[in-house]
Amino acid sequence: MGSKGRRRALPAAPLALVLLAATGCEGTPDARPEPSAAPSGSVARVCAAPAAGPAKAPAGAVTVDPAVPGDLAAKTRTSPPHTTFWLRPGTHRLDPDRYAQVVPKEGNRYLGAPGAVLDGRRTNQYAFGGTARDVTIRHLTVQGFVAPHDEGVVNHDSADGWTIEHATIQRNSGAGLMAGARQKVRASCLRDNGQYGMNAYKAGGRISGLVVEGNEITGNNTDDWERRRPGCGCTGGVKFWAVDGADVRGNWVHDNRGAGLWADTNNNDFRIEGNVLEENDGAALIYETSYNAVIRKNTIRRNNWVEGRRYADRGDSFPYATVYLSESGGEPRVRARTDRIEIHRNVLEDNWSGITLWENADRFCNSPANTSSGDCTLLVEDKDRCAQPAIATAPLYADCRWKTQRVDIRGNRFVLDKSVVDCAVKCDRMAVLANYGTYPDWSPYQGERVAEAITLEQHNRWHDNVYVGPWTFVVHDPSRTLDFGQWQGTPYRQDAGSTLRAGDGG
């Protein structure tokens, strides 16, 4: 793995923004076991019973008539900023041109009456676009739009400050919505979209202050892009790119084709908590070439059955897991609410494997093997500095590569019943490993240097966890598999204070 993220190049943020001492850190983790407070049942059952919008037009609102094609876009053009629009019950249509989208003005509000639907009829590419700030969309169903690959239907241009609440965004091509800075997506149904439920990507910039709360995110990637473009790294319930500060909480992310949540390329300062992530075909969560996160109190169950089994059936020995950290770690020099990646108080039940920490020895700035080819780490402003001879010595030897380091995994409950997962082998693994570094030939990371570092030197630590089931542990490289006693023993010394009940289930 580690070959994802082939999106458009995302420039690194200016060093003045990120090379600061971490503030608001959670401090050194408590060594004592922590009781789990993860949700026991599904949360955010939004799609089946969305909250109804206002049955009457609010005072001062402009009423939009579904019997008049293009009425919403036309009235938006002729009304001033900060106008409220109330869409009557019924199916609203845009003009029959693929670029006939609504272009809001600053502060506009769009409120749907009960039964209000904006339908692109597989003709219009986008529903709402433009760069106006602080737009609100509530109680509206948006469906049937045909955004191109890697583009989105709602907030197509990633404008800042948008609020999407109690909306249903479904059965569109591309992404249901894009994201800008300070965007809030709450209590909405992002369902059955062709590529992503949401693509948090802003061309030429970074996104800050993103909130994704109380949503149901399900059935996305209906167009199965990873099969159409193998290795594209271009799918997921939600994909995040270059986001600084995201709160992802209380969502139900389930039954997506591919990963549930995927943060890819220079994300930082995520809090992922109180979610239920279940029955996604791929990993529940991928955190890739990114920094500093708290992942806590989530219920993660029955994920990765499709993709995990697919790779196992091909004879692939890599430990594909339901929580996958790829070249991601804690970095005190990048400002965040923590200076590590903390994974704690989660319940992981009957997934295809558990947590894999991976670092590709060949993935670093200015390397031809780096699939995020236009990017560098947040510690190096100019990737061209990452070349011979400077890259072979400090500080660039460390700063030119994304490192899986300072990961603290504690107080979690890992349950595996192989009869439920229906597997014999390769679904029972925890892992911390790297590849043998051999490419390119001028790389300073040759041989086992990276494998030794991620396994023994980069402060990656499991402790005070509870294991139920026949777990095995992979260290250093895919060929080295340990039992629980070896995992706890010298030289690895993992899972101090943890317990293992090896029988299936329970």
TrEMBL record:
Limits of the Carbohydrate-binding/sugar hydrolysis domain: 158-312
Keywords from the UniProt entry: Repeat, Signal
InterPro entries reported in the protein's UniProt record: Beta_helix, Carb-bd_sugar_hydrolysis-dom, PbH1, Pectin_lyas_fold, Pectin_lyase_fold/virulence
Pfam families named in the record: Beta_helix
Domain of life of the organism encoding this protein: Bacteria
Residues annotated as signal peptide: 1-24
SMART domains: CASH, PbH1
Name the UniProt record assigns to this protein: Right-handed parallel beta-helix repeat-containing protein
